[in-house]
Structure formats: C-alpha cells, structure tokens
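Homework help board

Subject: predicted structure for assignment chain

Our instructor gave us this sequence and asked us to write out the predicted structure in token form, then describe one feature. I got the tokens but I'm not sure how to describe them. Can anyone check?
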Amino acid sequence: ADDLSDDDTYFYDTQDPFGYRRDVYAIDGEAVGPFEHRIVEATDVGALVAWLLDPDGDPGTDDAYALPRGLGGALDPYVGEGRYFVVLEVTPDPIRGAIPPLRLTYASDHMTLPMVPTAVAARRRLPLEVYVLGEHRAVPDNHLHVELNPAAIDWLQHGHNRHDVLRRAVDEAGGQAFVTDHAGPVP
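My token output:
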C-alpha cells in the first residue's frame, strides 16, 4: 500500500483562484486491497463537495467521486460538528467474488455511523452490518434497538430466513433500528 506523501496533503478553497486549498484538509490516504481511501476534514460543506468532484484540483483528470443528489445537505451537520470523513473508492481493478469487509479502527468513547449520508448514497435499501469490538456492549443512543423473535427464525433450515425476520423487526421500528447478535467475550 502506498501512503499519500506530505505533498498530497492539502487544503482546498473553492474561492481561491490560485488553487490553494484551505477549506478541505486531506489528512491521510492509501490504497488497501480493493479500496482507496482518504481521511478528510472540512470547514465548509460546499468546498467539501467541490473537493469530492475534483480531489486533485485539476479539471483535466478524471478523479471525481460519484455523488448522489442531496449529499451536500446530508453532510452539512457533520461538517458543522467538525467531523472527519473517510472517503472510499473501490479500485477499478476487477474483483473476483464479494468485496471484502472494510475495517475501521479508531480510539473514541463514542462511535458514530453516518447514517444520513449513507441513506442518501444508497440507491435501494442498504443492509449495513457493523461489528463493534470493545470492552462494553455498544448501544445506540439515537435509534431503537430491536430484538429478533427467535420463534420466527426457521432453525430447521439453518436460519435461512433470518434476514427477512430482521427486516420485519426493523420495519416495525420505523425502518431505522439496530440489532445486537452477540454481546460478550469474543472467543
């Protein structure tokens, strides 16, 4: 994996005619497996969207991220809170089989899943599986937590309908909820 050099860490301001970048700060980035990522901080949502549309500041290169409509509004609260963004792109190289899971590790007392931008970016219902490893159980503080009805799962068929049971439970909770599959020591 090639880390971005210090020369690739820059600020971005859409108003600057000389191309100096000030409102978006690309902190880190590298290619890992089929993913290319950058960690980005922004002070202005318009500048962040402009950066996503032209990360290297050269309109002659084809490096724009595909952005769904409404993304700027969805990112605005996160920019206002001073959050960092992990910008992901799947490499153009052919991938055999499923895309491997993405693992993010960071030290914090509070975990955040940016569900609003994820919902804007999803073209259809997007099931999201998150595994949280820590000393204590992760509990959502702004969404419902639901439990699956074990009697509704077809155990004789190895639980093949588990995702349908999960979908029904989440739908009954208004379409946004979390489910805990395991809380305890990891073997």
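Reply (TA_rk): Your tokens look well-formed. For the description, you could write something like this. Strands lie at 24-32, 35-42, 84-90, 144-146, 177-179. That's the kind of observation they're looking for.
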